[in-house]
Amino acid sequence: MEKRWGKKWALICLFLFNWARKVSSLSVTVSDMECVYEYVLYEGDTISGNFVVVDHDIFWSSDHPGIDFTVTSPGGNTVHSLKGTSGDKFEFKAPRSGMYKFCFHNPYSTPETIAFYIHVGHIPTDHDLAKDEHLNPINVKIAELREALESVTAEQKYLKARDTRHRHKVNETEIQ
Amino acid sequence: MNKGMVFGGRAACFLPIILVLCLTRNSNILPVAEAIWLTIPSSGTKCVSEEIQSNVVVLGDYYVIDENNPDHIPTISARVTSPFGNNLHHNENATHGQFAFTTSESGNYLACFWKDGSHQKDSELTLGVDWKTGIAAKDWESVAKKEKIEGVELVLRRLQGIVETICGNLIYLRDREADMREVSEATNARVAWFSIMSLGVCIAVSVLQIWYLKRYFVKKKLI
After folding, report:
1. Chain B partners of A31 at a C-beta cutoff of 8 Å?
2. Which of B6, B21, B128, B219 could bridge to B35 as Cys pair (CB 3.0-4.6 Å)?
3. In a domain, A3, yes or no
4. A66 lies in which domain range?
């Protein structure tokens, strides 16, 4: 009886644990350097995301050189970096747990709005399965399914941000 | 989180407390890191925005993180505005706050934070912002209680919700792309008409010039 009750708590806690997925999809205006921090709970988690520069001041500017994007691990090393892009996707495995810093650097002084999306996904491994006997392999499969759906959602957010960017260009060149 | 659980009558009474702490939004007690952290500059405001469709639930939670002096946490002010400029949430002199609203119009929703005047030190402030929209903001605990489902079934129900959101987003993207294509085609048609018209004007003006000059020279008996 107590073991069944404990199992129920285990499943509910597992559901809550699944619930504590870190997703954030926002836009921020970058004049020089803006950093966003995100906490990664487990080593080996996959950090995926994308960002798109939704042009702020496009009418008079020639091609902007792009935004530099760097990801710094809690130890201070640069885990991932992209230079001079107007938007890209990224995905990497976190080498350790802790607070990761995602920085956007704007080499020009005109402020640019960047729409970004960062997702930290965790899939229980065999080690987690061995540690907790109430975690059965179906939870691993559900976590994988959840991550696959999150990747589709991430792609949609990227497409939506790019669509916003193109829409601004099209509306600017529209002849009334 | 609470993965290592002890089963036993005595320890089981701790579980509801932990669950309640996890479910409440006051993350200062149990810092469940679900949010992104931003740095608020010592002067000026930091704003984050998102373009949201109408009829979407938005839940926000923000809290100041300051490990340097935990007994004298600096305060911030926050404001959330709708795309038409309405003030949806305003808070002054607070270390944490929450807001919830359903969007009535689609557009850019802006949440701005700035340091209060009483703490004008040169240090930067770290602010945790938890911003959830749509399916992520849905209250699954009440759904579980109402329909009496739990565990794997509840997780699968959430996945079903996510899939429905994906379908909705696809249709939304398709409609926006259709709008943009219409604008592009209208622009293309107008540019084509404009260039043909300017070419026609050039040709007409040149024909007129030739005709006038010919008439002039004939009149002056030069040809």
Report:
1. none
2. B128
3. no
4. 22-174
| Structural domain includes residue A76 | yes
Q: Does domain B36-149 have CATH number 2.60.120.380?
A: yes
Q: Which of B33, B49, B169 is facing A27, going by the closest CB pair?
A: B49
DSSP string, chain B: ---S---SHHHHTHHHHHHHHHHSS-TTTS----SEEEEE-SSSEEEEEEEE-SS-EEEEEEEEE-SS-TTS---EEEEEE-TT--EEEEEEEESEEEEEEE-SS-EEEEEEEEE-TT---S--EEEEEEEEEGGGG--HHHHHHHHT--HHHHHHHHHHHHHHHHHHHHHHHHHHHHHHHHHHHHHHHHHHHHHHHHHHHHHHHHHHHHHHHHHHHHHTT--
Least CA distance to B149: which residue of chain A? A12
**pLDDT (tens digit, 9 = 90+) per residue, B69-127?**
666 778 889 999 999 989 999 999 888 899 999 999 988 899 999 888 765 566 778 88
B124 touches chain A (CB under 8 A): no
ipTM: 0.76
